[in-house]
Amino acid sequence: MRVLIIEDDSEAASFLVKALKESGHSADWAEDGETGLEMAREGGYDVLIVDRMLPKLDGLTIIKTLREEGKQTPVLVLSALGAVDDRIKGLKAGGDDYLTKPYAYAELLARVEALSRRTVPEEQVTRYAVADLVLDRLSHRVTRGGEAIQLQPREYRLLEYLMKHAGQVVTRTMLLENVWDYHFDPQTNVIDVHVSRLRAKIDKSFDRPLLHTVRGAGYVIRDGSE
Amino acid sequence: MTVANKRTTTAFYTTVFGVTAAAVVAFLVVAALVVAGLVWQTNKVLSEQVLRTLSSEAQVLSATEATGGLDAITRAINVRSELNQSNLYYLTDATGSKLAGNLSRLPSELADGMTGGVFDYTSNGKKGGSERIAAGLPVRLSGGGLLIVARDIEDQRALAGRIRILALIGFGCLGVGGLVLGLVIGKSVLSRVEGMRQASRAIMAGDLAQRLPRSHTGDELDRLAESFNTMLSRIEQLMTGFREVSDNIAHDLKTPLNRLRNRAEATLRDATTSQELQDGLGQTIEAADEIIKTFDALLLIARLEAGAVSSTLEPVDIGALIRDAVELYEPVADDAGLALTSKVEHDVKLNANRRLVAQAIANLIDNAIKYSSRRSRVDGDNRLAGHVEVNVRRCGGNRVEISVSDDGPGIEAVDRQRVVERFVRLEESRTAPGTGLGLSLVSAVARLHGGAIRLEDNKPGLRAVVDLPAGP
């Protein structure tokens, strides 16, 4: 995956470049808005990480300009502004996801990876499968090894989201935002309890666990434990 | 210079003194004009009276001369001048040589013999030779002689002089008295203002408990002091709140910062294997996350209190919102041995910021679970020992009440108001996880929407009630 980071804080940027490279991606860095816009136009990037406050050209203008030019590259907006309104502004301008500074790298990586796979039109996917776990989006049925699993509606949506991002780490915040549409951090680890309940239903009576906890990051559903 | 002297000196610059001085000056000018006018008028009346008398006397004497000749008039003049010292005469024959009269010389002012007037003369009577003033009338006699009939008006002049002196003394007393009075009042005002200045300096120096001194007379200064004192009380209240808040911020940010530092230090000192290093750093990051959470909550509250988020109101189906929240927290409540249920009146709508209201409700549920779950743990493995209920009902015409009740330990009545404030966590709960901002955030969200939060006794437990205006 090729990522372009448009960020004026050189320390944060070089940390990101290094971390993304270590995660097996390639990353470029633009220090100001104008350079960033030029590189984004030329470039074949899979995901753009755009800081909101930039010298010369601010982040939201870059995104708007790109969208007006018909470029649909997914954008993750980074900002120190975390309030509800700012987030909405960021998404309205054409950003695909919004992350508030300070962020955990795991959170950023999970979101960037989630964005990079968006190119598949997911509405057309009718069925997710990981090993012998199958989720049928048309009948809303879940089976493992052919055995039907009864899920609550929310558990179904949780599993659906995890399976859509199979093999990819999904953070608690991403689950809260996408499954519950909650854009704040509940104090208690509510998500953990939900995931462990889901795990009890899909993994407990089977030899091979599919739903894994990734320490310090979140969860991943995948075949094999690694 | 002593303080008292200095105060007297500065009293000259008070408004009271200035106004008094101006009033005194204005009064003196007017009074002087009036007195001068009066004196002038009196003088004029008296002089006219004298001239009228002189004129009739002149006619009499002129008639005497016409009938009896110069001898007769000379005799008459001699008799008359003996009779009264202030009757003055001067008689000449046609050649101009003096025939009779007690005036030593012909007053030059009247020498033309045409018009009467005032002249100076030297008295040679009993009083000795003194310069006096007289009013006189010249009469041309039929025999060609000239008669001056005059009257001494020195007394009249002296009266005018006395009036002038009296007026001057009066004016002097008035002026000095007025100024002194002004000075005294000015000084008293000044001393009150000085008291206020000292109080305000003490306040500026940080003693917010100081109040401006009051006279309780209800005058303008007193009323001013009263309203300033009310303002100071409000400021003191705010500052106390602010100080408490900053103390709490210091505590709640420094505690995790300290923990972060300790963990980093311990890792640096003790970790020998890379696993230990990783664990240590992991804990450090957790501590940092805790600080970020607190910070985010603080910022959000600050923004809510500044009213910076109000632009995003939308119709909210509160029933759906509660269902979602209950569904999210139900497993956690279950783990804590609590039954989480909801009772929502049909079709209640809010016009609100959906996310903020959701967050507020989540906070309340979170609190209820967090603080009542411990009891059920003490009770042992008694499943569903407690109960948390979320309730939504219409209240009056256009209010909606969202309440979250638990049957946990509750909060003492005296602490209920306090816990809503920013960062206040009761000592018993200091160890529980959380930023201590949950209820303050709910309160800020409620206020933003024109509502309020109140805490009630649920007997047993706590009921947090958020009262919001209903939507369209």
TrEMBL record, chain A:
Residues 2-116 form the Response regulatory domain. It comes from Candidatus Filomicrobium marinum. It comes from the Bacteria. The modification 4-aspartylphosphate is found at residue 51. PROSITE patterns: OMPR_PHOB, RESPONSE_REGULATORY. CDD domains: trans_reg_C (cd00383). Keywords: DNA-binding, Phosphoprotein, Transcription, Transcription regulation, Two-component regulatory system. This is Transcriptional regulatory protein CusR. GO terms for cellular component: cytosol; protein-DNA complex. Residues 125-223 form the OmpR/PhoB-type domain. InterPro entries: CheY-like_superfamily, OmpR/PhoB-type_DNA-bd, Sig_transdc_resp-reg_receiver, WalR-like, WH-like_DNA-bd_sf. The lineage of its organism: Bacteria, Pseudomonadati, Pseudomonadota, Alphaproteobacteria, Hyphomicrobiales. Gene3D superfamilies: 3.40.50.2300, 6.10.250.690, Winged helix-like DNA-binding domain superfamily/Winged helix DNA-binding domain. The gene is cusR. Pfam families: Response_reg, Trans_reg_C. Residues 125-223 bind DNA. The keyword Repeat does not apply. One of its GO terms (molecular function) is transcription cis-regulatory region binding. The keyword Metal-binding does not apply. One of its GO terms (biological process) is regulation of DNA-templated transcription. SUPFAM superfamilies: CheY-like (SSF52172). PANTHER family: REGULATOR OF RPOS, TWO-COMPONENT RESPONSE REGULATOR.
UniProtKB/TrEMBL annotation, chain B:
It is found in: Membrane. Coiled coil: none annotated. The chain crosses the membrane at residues 12-40, 165-186. This is histidine kinase. Pfam families: HAMP, HATPase_c, HisKA. PANTHER family: HISTIDINE KINASE, SENSOR HISTIDINE KINASE YKOH. It catalyses: ATP + protein L-histidine = ADP + protein N-phospho-L-histidine. The keyword Membrane applies. Gene3D superfamilies: 1.10.287.130, 6.10.340.10, Histidine kinase-like ATPase, C-terminal domain. It comes from Filomicrobium insigne. It comes from the Bacteria. GO terms for molecular function: kinase activity. Keywords: Kinase, Membrane, Phosphoprotein, Transferase, Transmembrane, Transmembrane helix, Two-component regulatory system. The lineage of its organism: Bacteria, Pseudomonadati, Pseudomonadota, Alphaproteobacteria, Hyphomicrobiales.
